[in-house]
Specification:
The complex is a heterodimer of chains A (about 110) and B (about 110). Chain A has about 110 residues and is mainly beta. Chain A contains no helices and eleven strands. In chain A, strands 2, 4, 5, 9, 10 and 11 form a six-stranded mixed beta sheet that branches. In chain A, strands 1-3-8-7-6 form a five-stranded antiparallel beta sheet, with no helix packed on it. The chains are: A mainly beta (about 110), B mainly beta (about 110).
Chain lengths: ~110, ~110
């Protein structure tokens, strides 16, 4: 069974804080990994892909540990505009190779 | 910019009615997807399509069918709507060679 597990939160953090989200996946044949962001009452949008070597985009850092089947997202210097739900997403190989499996999301609220 | 549009933002139907949800994308993407999103359950894949007239079942296809007669259009059909199909329905598309999925704004369907 394909599963992607996330802590649902909510995470309530003050502006300027650093916050980390974790995600685990069950299928070791997983190929690609992503973080999506979903604002309240909006559609999900790609935040960043996650590579084995780790990758950074401004205040956001994503890391992948294939051995532990674990993905993380670190947000530094949190802004009010970072408040959203963050979805961990995994692509599985095989038939339907572009099929994504979404975690249920982690809700972040950044407070003034 | 990629644009994915859905025919309605809000829809109210009665039990037993046949419901059509339409999705159109303007970027010539090969892949199209239908999801539903429910609180506590996250995004779940209903059906997807790799090409015109082609369809594959996702994780929860029961009670739904789809149609893809043209590349840019992917329709979700509820043959006989039931109250447990009340949900937010999200359409997405992606090109073959790139994994990012682009979502439409969603249709909030209420079945009374």
């Amino acid at each position: 069974r394909k599963e992607v597990e996330q802590d649902p939160g909510p995470f309530n953090v003050p502006e300027g804080a650093t916050v980390a989200f974790n995600c685990t996946y069950s299928n070791s044949a997983s190929q690609s990994f992503f973080w999506y962001r979903q604002d309240c009452r909006k559609e999900p949008k790609l935040l960043m892909s996650v590579y084995s070597s780790g990758n950074e985009d401004g205040r956001f850092t994503a890391q992948l540990n294939r051995a532990s089947q674990y993905i993380s997202l670190l947000i530094r210097d949190s802004k009010l505009s970072d408040s959203a739900t963050y979805l961990c997403v995994v692509q599985y190989s095989g038939a339907g190779s572009y099929q994504l499996t979404f975690g249920k999301g982690t809700k972040l609220s950044v407070i003034p | 910019d990629v644009k994915v549009t859905q025919s309605s933002r809000y829809l109210v139907k009665r039990t037993g009615e046949k419901v059509f949800l339409e999705c159109v994308q303007d970027m010539d993407h090969e892949n199209m997807f239908w999801y539903r999103q429910d609180p506590g359950l996250g995004l779940r894949l209903i059906y997807f399509s790799y090409d015109v007239k082609m369809k594959e079942k996702g994780d929860i296809p029961e009670g739904y069918s789809v149609s893809r007669e043209k590349k840019e259009r992917f329709s979700l059909i509820l043959e006989s709507a039931s109250t447990n199909q009340t949900s937010m329905y999200l359409c997405a598309s992606s090109p073959v060679a790139y994994n990012e999925q682009f979502f439409g704004p969603g249709t909030r369907l209420t079945v009374l």
